[in-house]
Automatic annotation (TrEMBL):
Active-site feature positions: 141, 143
Keywords on record: GTP-binding, Hydrolase, Metal-binding, Nucleotide-binding, Riboflavin biosynthesis, Zinc
Name of the molecule in the record: GTP cyclohydrolase-2
Species of the source: Streptomyces doebereineriae
Domain GTP cyclohydrolase II: 19-185
InterPro entries per UniProt: GTP_cyclohydro_II (IPR032677), RibA (IPR000926), RibA-like_sf (IPR036144)
């Protein structure tokens, strides 16, 4: 007899890793994608990869995009996240193929939405993004990109051209067995509202943002 705890009363083994759950067509203003949905059994997060065209296995143009409600949905100019997501989706369509992995659980570099808002309030008082996280007793960056590598493995991707300014993403993919053939800059023109944030990312988080040198006039 089999019940919820398994055969003869033994508890069924808990699933681990990333499981592909669904593949659905997703027409967007950018083009027609396939939305491939995954469940991360280790963290409980639901993840999605937006796949465009025939991606193949080598040198696939990709973006690992960390969830950012304020930037992606509300158009916040505190960061450049919404503009980067827009640029990445346009880039894979222009390329003819590619993947944008939207990483949930990455809000505020992993601290969550409410904590991110608290950090933003501290930044309005003069702290930078690193100081604000630390003042709240939270990690500066706790994001894990292993789930993205597992998604690439599931999709048959061996090597990527990574759209990112963050060297930690490249390092993480390499650690998890995904070759990074090229890092493609994803530079967004800064504004007065996000220039301090972007400079902090360059100076304290090692992001590669050479275009900031051309906007020294912004406060």
């Amino acid at each position: 007899m089999t019940d919820k705890v398994g055969v003869l009363g033994k508890k069924a083994p808990q699933r681990t890793g990333v499981e592909r759950v669904v593949n659905a067509p997703l027409p967007t203003v950018y083009g027609k994608f396939q939305a491939v949905g995954y469940l991360d059994h280790d963290r409980g997060d639901e993840q999605v990869a937006l796949v465009y065209g025939d991606i193949g296995s080598d040198d696939v143009l990709v973006r690992l995009h960390s969830e950012c409600l304020t930037g992606d949905a509300f158009g916040s100019q505190h960061c450049e996240c919404g503009d980067q997501l827009d640029a990445a989706l346009r880039a894979v369509v222009k390329e003819g193929s590619g993947i944008v992995v939207y990483l949930r659980g990455h809000e505020g570099r992993g601290i969550g939405l409410l904590a991110k808002l608290r950090a933003m309030a501290l930044q309005a008082e003069g702290l930078d993004t690193v100081e604000a996280n630390l003042a709240l007793g939270l990690p500066v960056d706790s994001r894990d990109y292993g789930v993205a590598a597992e998604i690439f493995h599931d999709l048959g991707v061996n090597s990527v051209r990574l759209m990112s300014n963050n060297p930690r993403k490249r390092e993480a993919l390499l650690r998890h067995g995904i070759k990074v053939a090229e890092t493609v800059p994803l530079l967004i023109t800064p504004c007065e509202s996000n220039i301090t944030y972007l400079r902090t990312k360059r100076e304290r988080l090692d992001h590669v943002l050479p275009h900031l040198d051309a906007v020294a006039h912004l406060s």
